[in-house]
Write a structure and sequence with these properties.
Radius of gyration: 18 Å
CATH topology of one domain: Aminopeptidase
Strand order of the largest sheet: 2-1-3-4-5-6-7-9-8
Largest sheet: 9 strands, mixed
CATH superfamily of one domain: Gcn5-related N-acetyltransferase (GNAT)
Number of strands: 9
Structural class: alpha+beta
CATH architecture of one domain: 3-Layer(aba) Sandwich
């Protein structure tokens, strides 16, 4: 049977900041692709995949320019992790997150003018987003005041609709975790919608994440929190969140 192969590679100029070992993952299809550290030229493709994968989500409704600035912000953060998968020069998926979330959100709050005009423009187009923007501001402020520097947040992972079904999401997840562990993360955590979102919840559980709690992010929206850790299970929340 032909098998699909993905290699994890890195540009030499980024080796010191992002130490990555070569990694291969095989699938049952006959195609070859690469998972690598993102470059600035990848940002438009990342934004497009985000819009396709999360078409009805709040951040998507803020517009492509907001998304571009957000992913550029993560890319330029000293401990940001942005990985992409590509085949024949076409991006097919990405994974994005960051070490030391408290520092990241504190920096994001101090750099809020970077996002202000694009958010205001979205509010002009969609006034109903006002409560979502307020919730987002409160989350950034709260997240900037807590958390371990050895924790890592997986903020988003997505595969283009036409590239699904061959296990690419699992490849990106394993690559992201490998990168987080290489940066001395004690744990990686994430949140996702609790209701009407079973494929994503199943994906995270199958990837080894442990369910930790269910909470209400805002009225009518319940979230699940998941953690995967290299610590003992009873140490996970105290050391990582």
């Amino acid at each position: 049977m032909n098998r699909e192969r993905f290699e994890l590679v890195r540009p030499l100029s980024l080796a010191k900041r992002y130490p990555m070992n070569s990694h291969q993952a095989q699938f049952g299809s006959g195609l070859t692709g690469v998972v690598r550290r993102a470059m600035p030229s990848d940002l438009p493709g990342i934004v497009t995949i985000h819009q396709e994968a999360f078409s009805h989500f709040f951040l998507t409704r803020l517009g492509s320019e907001f998304l571009r600035r957000y992913y550029a912000f993560v890319f330029n953060y000293r401990a940001g992790i942005v990985l992409v998968s590509e085949r024949r020069g076409v991006l097919e998926g990405f994974a994005c997150g960051f070490m030391d979330p408290a520092e990241f959100y504190g920096l994001m709050w101090r750099s809020r003018r970077t996002f202000a005009w694009t958010a205001l423009s979205a509010l002009v187009r969609h006034p109903s987003l006002a409560s979502n923007v307020l919730d987002g501001v409160q989350r950034i402020q709260a997240s900037a005041s807590k958390g371990s520097p050895h924790s890592c947040e997986l903020s988003s992972i997505a595969v283009a609709p036409g590239a699904g079904g061959v296990g690419l999401g699992g490849v990106l997840m394993r690559a992201f975790l490998a990168q987080a562990w290489s940066m001395n993360a004690h744990c990686v955590y994430l949140t996702t919608d609790a209701d009407g979102n079973e494929p994503a919840n199943t994906f995270y559980r199958n990837a080894g994440f442990q369910y930790t709690r269910r909470f209400r992010q805002r009225k009518g929206r319940w979230m699940n929190e998941y953690v995967i850790s290299r610590l003992r299970p009873d140490d996970t929340r105290g050391m990582c969140l």
